[in-house]
Design goal:
about 120 residues; five-stranded antiparallel beta sheet; mainly beta; elongated; ApaG_domain; about 70% strand; ApaG-like; 8 strands; Co2+/Mg2+ efflux protein ApaG; ApaG_sf
Length: about 120
């Protein structure tokens, strides 16, 4: 049951306190034939220097959205990293109405300050 679609869309916000600030919008769409609920998140943030940071937590932006078939949920969040570029990937854990848990990969997306692109 991995018919949940994850669409990330990052953007650069500028420099803040010596770090590079990025916003990202994530749209989660339930393409399953039954409702699903997002339980947990796992992020892998890779800085431009190769350092890896992992983040685990319940839900997203303080919510554990329940999505009916065909329904989408969009949220915005952000990341501060010490390098001008990096990437993010990870997974979300969902459950269905039968209590079966499953993970869906978050496609890797690039975090890049405009001056780092050639």
């Amino acid at each position: 049951m991995s018919q949940v679609e994850i669409q990330p869309s990052p953007s650069f916000l500028g420099r803040q306190q010596g770090h590079y600030a990025f916003a990202y919008e994530i749209t989660i769409t339930n393409r399953c034939s039954e409702p699903v609920q997002l339980l947990n998140r796992h992020w892998i943030i890779t800085h431009g220097n190769g350092q890896i940071e992992e983040v685990y937590g319940e839900g997203v932006v303080g919510q554990q959205p329940r999505l009916n078939p065909g329904q989408s949920f969009t949220y915005q969040s952000g990341a501060l990293i010490p390098t001008r570029n990096g990437s993010m990937s990870g997974s979300y854990e969902f459950t269905d109405d039968a209590g079966e848990r499953f993970r869906v990969a978050i496609p890797e997306f690039v975090l890049a300050a405009p001056e780092s692109l050639h």
